[in-house]
Amino acid sequence: MLKDINPARILFLDIETAPMVASYEDMDTHFQALWEKKSSYFRTEDQGPGDVFERAGIYAEFGKIICISVGILTGRENEYSLRLKSFFGSDEKLLLENFSVMLNNFSTNREAMLCAHNGKEFDYPFIARRMIINGLVIPAVLDNAGKKPWEINLLDTMELWKFGDYKNFTSLDLLSGLMGVPTPKDDIDGSMVAEIYWKEKDIERIAKYCEKDVIALTQVFLKFRNNVPVSEERIESVTQFSD
């Protein structure tokens, strides 16, 4: 039961990703061949591998993380405050190292849980895979190897909405609208991130968008618990978390 979970245990998160390089032509020939094989499963007959390279960012093998935004709830039930922090930049290894330090610190004084929308299919495995690629140790809460199902502390609002219906995909934007939560897509959406990163080089705009997703995610989670949403004046971005 969600009511039995202390929200102070939960780190709400969202990630933004982009292709590993700006274009298909910028990859070395070995990875071009690998992408050609990978993309053959979803390309149409009139498309070449370069025509669909913008999709590379959703695959951990051909993309990279450019932003992780996180949020924590503090205060009493129905009077929560939400604190946000973002890790972003072009140095993915440094970004992941800093995120890992924060996550391990957050887990020190509590049995930490993570919450993301479609996190079990995307965010959690993407972070873990990119940590392996960058030679980093996966934080315990993300490392599910050998764990029993009840030992895994990963929440997913899309899974909660399914109620066992595994045929259905519901976006965070749609779920937000259904629950009266302000949409996080008022400036950009996920399909625009790669161009904003590689062409406009405006990563701070991406980080703000990512934080909006975390706000919407947190508000949707509170709706699942029949809690009062966090008021706008109780939401703030911080440089670091403190217990």
What distinguishing features does this structure have?
Nucleotidyltransferase, domain 5, six-stranded mixed sheet, 34% helix, 243 residues, alpha/beta
Describe, in short, the structure shown.
The chain is built from seven helices and six strands. The protein is α/β, with parallel strands linked by helices and 243 residues long.
Descriptive notes:
The chain is of the alpha/beta class and 243 residues long. The protein has one domain: Nucleotidyltransferase, domain 5 (2-Layer Sandwich), CATH 3.30.420.10. 34% of the residues lie in helices and 16% in strands. Helix 3 links the parallel strand 4 and strand 5 (154-156). Helix 5 (172-178) crosses helix 7 (203-224). The model has no long low-confidence stretch (mean pLDDT 92).
What's the SSE blueprint?
Elements: E1 10-19, H1 29-39, E2 63-74, E3 81-88, H2 92-108, E4 113-116, H3 123-133, E5 154-156, H4 157-162, H5 172-178, H6 193-200, H7 203-224, E6 235-237
Parallel strand pairs: 1-4, 3-6, 4-5
Antiparallel strand pairs: 1-2, 2-3
- The topology string of helices and strands comes to EHEEHEHEHHHHE
The share of residues in helices is 25-40%
Give me the CATH superfamily: Ribonuclease H-like superfamily/Ribonuclease H
Q: What count of structural domains?
A: 1
Mean pLDDT over the full residue set: 92
Please identify the structural class as seen in this structure: alpha/beta
For the sheet with most strands, the description reads: 6 strands, mixed
The side-by-side strand order for the widest beta sheet comes to 5-4-1-2-3-6
SS elements, strand count: 6
Annotation field: number of helices: 7
Task: Give the CATH class.
Answer: Alpha Beta
Unreliable stretches, pLDDT < 50, 5 or more residues?
none
Strand content: 15-25%
- Could you please say which CATH topology applies here? Nucleotidyltransferase, domain 5
